[in-house]
Structures are given as structure tokens and as C-alpha cells.
Amino acid sequence: MITGNVYSASHVELAPKAKIKGNVYYRLLEMSMGAEVNGQLIHMEDDDTELTNIEFDAVDLAKDSPKLDHSSD
After folding, report:
1. Using CA atoms, how far apart are residues 72 and 22, in angstroms rounded to an integer?
2. Are 19 and 2 a contacting pair, CB within 8 Å?
3. 24: nearest Cα among 9, 34, 15
4. pLDDT for the residue numbered 45
5. How far is it, in rounded angstroms, from Cα 26 to Cα 13?
6. Other beta carbons less than 10 A from residue 48's beta carbon
7. What percent of the chain has pLDDT over 90?
8. What pLDDT is attached to residue 38?
9. Average pLDDT over residues 40-45
10. Where would you tag: which of 31, 43, 44, 67 has the fewest CB atoms within 10 A of its CB?
11. pLDDT at residue 60 greater than cutoff 70
12. Please, how many CA atoms are within 13 Å of residue 46, restricted to the half-sphere of its CB?
């Protein structure tokens, strides 16, 4: 799960198990059945410069990332 707003200057793709607790700012959105957004979906026009001026707290995505086991490599 991602907690916090998501900002994209181009394409956002939400997979079936994606979970976001926050707003999603996007230009192009692809959302699979089963994905969850608990917040607002905010479409940005191509000429909007708002994304370049937004300050936001970094989200620690590493804690939710799958751990890869390379011990057999």
C-alpha cells in the first residue's frame, strides 16, 4: 500500500492489487479491476505546469517492495 499522494508527469498504471491511500495526479491513467484508490483522481492537462511546482513528502516505497532472493544466482 502507498500512503500519500502520487504525482505523475505522464502515465500511471495501477495493477489489480494496487492500493493507494491518497490522491493520484495523472495525465494518463490505466487502472485494472481490483485496484483501489482511497482519495481523488485528478487529471492534469498537457499544458498544466502544476506538477513541476508541487512540493510533497517522499513516500518510502521500499518497505512495500517485494524482496528478491539472489542467493541461488
Report:
1. 38
2. yes
3. 9
4. 84
5. 10
6. 13
7. 51
8. 96
9. 91
10. 67
11. no
12. 0
The whole-angstrom separation of Cα 35 and Cα 54 is: 25
Nearest to 29 by CA among 17, 39, 19, 44: 44
CB 24 within 8 A of CB 37: yes
pTM metric for this prediction: 0.62
Reported as a pLDDT band with limits 50, 70 and 90, residue 56 is very low
Residues contacting residue 54 through CB under 8 Å, at least 6 positions apart:
7, 25
Would you give the distance in Å from CA 39 to the centre of its chain? 12
Q: Which of 16, 18, 5 is nearest to 51 (CA)?
A: 5
- What pLDDT score does 20 carry? 95
Q: Which helix (H) or strand (E) holds 29?
A: strand 28-31
Q: Is the pLDDT of residue 61 over 70?
A: no
